[in-house]
Design the sequence.
């Protein structure tokens, strides 16, 4: 892995969920569907126009990745943090197996509804990021949280749970990266535009 993306002041973020489904349909209209494990989030990330001095650290970081070769992390701005009112240090409660979608978690700072909310990103002690798909209500500082996709790796008791500033481990999706210049700012400085695509690395 080659570090963390140095700037995340994106003007646009396009989020995709990639999940392969084997699909066939008969002449009568009957369908057969089977899903292949391996869901991944992907993103199209757009920066605002930047002067060379602002853009240079981003350009250098992208060059270090050698296009699709290396993994790096992207931690999105605070508006991607959990929507609920949770502030505690959350831990996995008990061991969990691959393919589980309900995860027992304790360490909630309080009880009640809305501790975590559907649509929140959540991460355990491995690279994959998951999404909370039902609002979580805690009782006695514990809750069972429903996630998608199913777990890719086992979870140990008391392993960490991240719900704010969730880092995504990603790689670039193209071997061609284009750094474009367009207009100038009011001081005559040439402005750089950059948009790029990444996908989770599993």
Sequence:
């Amino acid at each position: 892995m080659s570090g963390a993306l140095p700037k995340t002041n994106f003007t646009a973020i396009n989020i995709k969920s990639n999940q392969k489904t084997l699909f066939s349909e008969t002449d009568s209209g009957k369908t057969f569907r089977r899903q292949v494990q391996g869901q991944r989030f992907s993103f199209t990330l757009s920066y605002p126009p930047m002067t060379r001095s602002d853009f240079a650290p981003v350009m250098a970081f992208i060059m270090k990745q050698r296009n699709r070769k290396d993994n790096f992390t992207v931690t999105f701005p605070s508006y991607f943090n959990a929507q609920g009112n949770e502030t505690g240090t959350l831990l996995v409660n008990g061991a969990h197996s691959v393919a589980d979608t309900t995860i027992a978690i304790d360490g909630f700072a309080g009880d009640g509804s809305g501790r975590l909310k559907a649509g929140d990103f959540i991460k355990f002690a491995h690279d994959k990021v998951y999404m909370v798909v039902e609002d979580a209500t805690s009782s006695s500082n514990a809750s069972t949280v429903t996630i998608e996709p199913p777990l890719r790796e086992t979870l140990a008791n008391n392993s960490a749970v991240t719900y704010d500033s969730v880092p995504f481990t990603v790689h670039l999706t193209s071997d061609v990266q284009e750094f474009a210049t367009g207009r100038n700012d009011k001081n005559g400085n040439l402005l750089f535009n950059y948009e790029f695509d990444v996908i989770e690395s599993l």
